[in-house]
Amino acid sequence: MRLHTIQIVAGLAAAVLFVLAFMAAGAALLSGLFMFAGLAVIGWLAYSLIKGVLRRDTKSEPPARA
Q1: SS3 call for 47
Q2: DSSP for 1-32?
C-alpha cells in the first residue's frame, strides 16, 4: 500500500506534536521542581524567623538609640 502525501504530512505533524508535548511536560516538571524549591526556602525562612522571635528574651531592654 502506498502512502499518500496527506498521510505523510499527518505522520510528520504527529511526530512534531509529540516532541512538543514531551518538551512541555519536561518544562512543567522543571518548573514544578523550582516551585517546590522556592516554597521550601520560604518555609525555612519563616521557620527561622519565628524561631528567632520565640527565643527572644521578653525582659531585655531595647537597644539604645544614638
Answers
A1: helix
A2: -PPPHHHHHHHHHHHHHHHHHHHHHHHHHHHH
Strand, helix or coil for residue 63: coil
Model pLDDT, residue 57? 62
Q: Which amino acid is at 29?
A: L
**Per-residue pLDDT tens digits for 4-61:** 999 999 999 999 999 999 999 999 999 999 999 999 999 999 999 999 888 876 666 6
Side chain identity at residue 37, one-letter code:
A
- Tell me if the pTM is above 0.70: no
CA 23-35-27 angle, to 5 degrees, is: 5
